[in-house]
């Protein structure tokens, strides 16, 4: 079974029934990742789409251990023998270390390394340009939507405010590469 098929099956099993909106989002992020896949080798393209499909698997209620989905997801995927690089991408997706700091989970996320590559940027871009329903948006719209959804006093709002410059920078690096490659990534 290919890595993408295994990832889609795992995400579907954990999210489709328990959290259908999250499943719709995850499928949208997978489609976004597939748009950027042409920037990478075949092996890395597969890894990118697989990580996109699995990035939010840690939201599944039965996987909650720390209550912080990037870490819970990465630990679960490691236990399921997914590749270590994929687990690390999931642990660190969309600037998760910033939220880990606010949740006093720095030690838990530190077992994984943020690879800080174009592939990691593309995963962050795919997540940050996909709406909660799986539609497409841009990074600024997505950050605004998150702040509105959680409200001014929520830890997630504090996190997204702190992470904004890193999220925007990763999205801009990816979009520059997409433009240079002639790939249309505009929100549809
Ligand atoms: Fe996401």
Describe it for me?
The protein has helices spanning 3-15, 20-36, 42-54, 69-79, 84-91, 96-102, 106-109, 118-128, 139-150, 155-180. It has one domain (3-180). It starts with a helix and ends in an 8-residue tail after the last helix. The mean pLDDT is 97. The protein is globular and about 40 Å long. With 188 residues, it is an all-alpha fold. The site of fe (ii) ion has 5 residues, from helix 2.
List the helices and strands and how they pair.
Blueprint: H1 3-15, H2 20-36, H3 42-54, H4 69-79, H5 84-91, H6 96-102, H7 106-109, H8 118-128, H9 139-150, H10 155-180
Helix pairs in contact: 1-2, 1-3, 2-3, 2-8, 3-5, 3-8, 4-5, 8-10, 9-10
The protein binds fe (ii) ion.
- Total of DSSP H or I helical runs spanning 4+ residues: 10
Roughly what is the average pLDDT, rounded to an integer?
97
Q: Which structural class matches the secondary elements?
A: mainly alpha
Helix-strand string:
HHHHHHHHHH
Q: Name the assembly state.
A: single chain
Q: How many extended strands?
A: 0
Strand content: under 5%
Please state the CA-atom Rg, rounded to the nearest Å.
Answer: 15 Å
Determine the N-to-C terminus distance: 32 Å
| Overall spatial form | globular
Q: How many strands, which pairing sense, and closed or not: the largest β-sheet?
A: none
Task: Give the uncertain stretches in residue-range form.
Answer: none
List cofactors, ions and other ligands: fe (ii) ion
What is the helix content? 55-70%
Number of domains: 1
